[in-house]
Amino acid sequence: MAQPPKTQAKSPADPITDLIPEASRSKLWPMTWVFAYGSNMGSRGLAAKGVRAVRSGGARLRGYDLAFDVPSVFYRIEGGVGNVVEGASAGGRGEVQGVVHEVDDAGLARLDAIEATGILYERRTLDVQTYDGDTVAAETYVGLPAIRQATLRPSARYIRVLVDGASEQGVDPGWIQRLRETPVHVPPRFGPFHPPASALAAFDAAELARNPAFVALDGVVFDLSAPSPAHRVITMLRGGKDLTPVAVALGAGVDDGVAAHERQSVALHQLQHELALDYPVVGRFVG
Question: How would you class 42 by CB atoms within 10 Å of its CB: exposed for 0-12, middle for 13-18, buried for 19 or more?
């Protein structure tokens, strides 16, 4: 395996792992390089998904171009999310810049689930070049041809996440500027969500935990007993729990026309409307 990038952002602290010299960690448990070019570039995006990188650094994938033609795994209002497409598209340059993370098997399995592998993405092993000149065989999530939609555009929220993650990890400034200039879509705007009058049951944390197919979102409980394939990850991560902290951490497709102090409440209302399109409301969450 190639040496890790010499310049790397610090991952969130793990007091046990950090006691072990980096050169010895891969001998103690299997580790894998993952090339991230979207919301997984930054440590915050990984942490929100329950994944910790042992080492990280800037890298480039040659022979591919960046696209946003994969529909969001969670919410239609998010528009398209990142993908790498072989060859150079019109206006592209046949290179995608991003970050390589070294993760353990548990982290890789979690990413497989969250990225909806086999539903939206497939995982390929591709050679990427680190900023230090090494070639690393890295697991890379590539959108499945059957689900790609060329007309999709990413949300302004999603582009902000990419810019923040790339900046944190020291990705080339020219690439970050290209991300900033990406055309974005304007998601539909919904007003406050009002649960149906029949949803009178009150769930506290203990009662919600007894119903692993239910999730709470900003005080409303939804029944995800029959989740779509793309939404199975919601019950896997937060079944029987409050989804609100994750929704806030990951954000939602709220456009820049919304005042910063209103974005969280507007985003949560958007997501409630989205879930209500597919799943019944069964009650209120009282904490």
Answer: buried
The pTM (predicted TM-score) of the whole model is 0.71
Is 83 part of any domain? yes
Identify residue 7 by its one-letter amino acid code.
T
Angle at 155 between CA 152 and CA 158, to 5 degrees: 115
Three-state DSSP string of the chain: CCCCCCCCCCCCCCCCHHHCCHHHHHHHCCEEEEEECCCCCCHHHHHHCCCCCCEEEEEEEECEEEEEEEECCCCHHHEEEEEEEECCCCCCCCEEEEEEEEEEHHHHHHHHHHCCECCCEEEEEEEEEECCCCEEEEEEEEECHHHCCCCCCECHHHHHHHHHHHHHCCCCHHHHHHHHCCCCCCCCCCCCCCCCCCCCCEECHHHHHCCCCEEEECCEEEECCCCCHHHHHHHHHHCCEECHHHHHHHCCCCCCCCCHHHHHHHHHHHHHHHHHHHCCEEEEECC
**Domain tally for the chain?**
2
Q: Does residue 191 lie in a domain region?
A: no
Write the CATH number for 277: 3.10.120.10
Are residue 95 and residue 214 in the same domain, yes or no? no
Q: Per residue in 225-255, pLDDT tens?
A: 998 766 777 887 789 999 988 777 655 544 5
**Host domain of residue 36:** 17-180
Task: Give yes or no for residue 142 having a pLDDT over 60.
Answer: yes
Are residue 156 and residue 231 in the same domain, yes or no? no
Q: Are residues 109 and 44 in the same domain?
A: yes
**131 found inside a domain:** yes
- 160-219: per-residue pLDDT in tens? 999 999 999 999 999 999 999 999 987 777 789 999 888 789 999 999 999 999 999 999
